[in-house]
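Dear support,

I submitted the protein below through the web form. The confirmation email said the job was done, but the results page showed an empty box. After a refresh the structure appeared. I'm attaching both so you can tell me whether what I see now is the final result or a partial one.
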Amino acid sequence: MRTQVGIVGGGPAGLLLARLLGLAGIDCVVLERRTPEYLRARIRAGLLEQGTVDILTEAGVGDRLARERLLHGGLELAFDGRRHRIDLKALSGQVVTIYGQAEVQKDLMDAHAAMGTPIVYEAEDVSLHGLTGDRPRLRYHKGGDLHEVQCDFIAGCDGFHGVSRQAIPHEVIRIYERVYPFGWLGLLADTPPVNHELIYTNHERGFALCTMRSMTRSRYYLQVPADEDVADWPDDRFWAELKRRIPPDAAAALKTGPSLEKSVAPLRSFVAEPLRHGRLFLAGDSAHIVPPTGAKGLNLAVADVRFLTQALVDYYNFGRTALLEGYSDRCLARVWKAQRFSWWMTNLTHRFPEAIAFERRAQAAELAYLVGSKAAQTTLAENYGGLPMA
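What the results page shows now:
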């Protein structure tokens, strides 16, 4: 098989890239090791920056999003039993959208089905070859047979555990990483959210987050040790602990119910540099991971995809290579700003088990300063709402 761009990974990053390239008349093939059913059901984050919404709309997958999304003009920080609202819209002119990543996945899959994009699901043993030459190749097994895709370029959109980043030689790639000593225990339930906007809570027992997928489906998180076993958290224990951590007025309003899904997600900050090796370009979680505190993961992936699309369109339409050559630096400039913000939000809202008394008091002082300073709130609002995708 011959194509212009081979895409490894059929999650939101890979499918959005394929969609934008297809609309620009650039041929691509997508290889995905999972089944369509798995991808549609996978539970992921659900907060979108306006820039992400604009790009999804540009890709022709924004209609259902526009109908069903929730718009948030602010968020709440809670500590010492009190809630403090940060007015994102007034401070930065921005709002954020609540729309589940699983819904983005479904919208993109439906658009590709209508478009006839060649997507190979359950592609096994994917491997990358000839990355430093002018004809890189993808090989994979399907139905017991070996297949090969010859490409001009390869986009690695296959996530943190994918094969794309691993195809870059160790002497070429640099890894920057911070693994946190805790994770997020998440519970999804068909209950109305406790508040119309997100509540981030710093409590002596650990961080808690109240969020939602819709006005009838809620998502709640508790900070737990990184090695926590979800089996040790029956629903009753989860709800009781959540009520202990969130402010009393929120706890009194909380509606509980049986969990639809429960899982523990580890937290880490991770960046691989560079995002390009020869004809391979990394995008999304294959290149960088952020702790979910700042809600930047999917939004960073969309920014990568936008930059890579612009670079490939410039190459195929005008024969120019400057944007391809500058892709890694352009992405990383935005990635590191999002990493800084996500790291800061995590340090602001979580309880670190190794923290000494000085650090705990300094954290309390920073929270107090933040809720009392318009300048500090503006900085938070600008970053939370999303820095320019430029």
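Response: this is the final, complete result; the empty box was a page-load delay. The CA atoms of residues 296 and 338 lie 7 Å apart.
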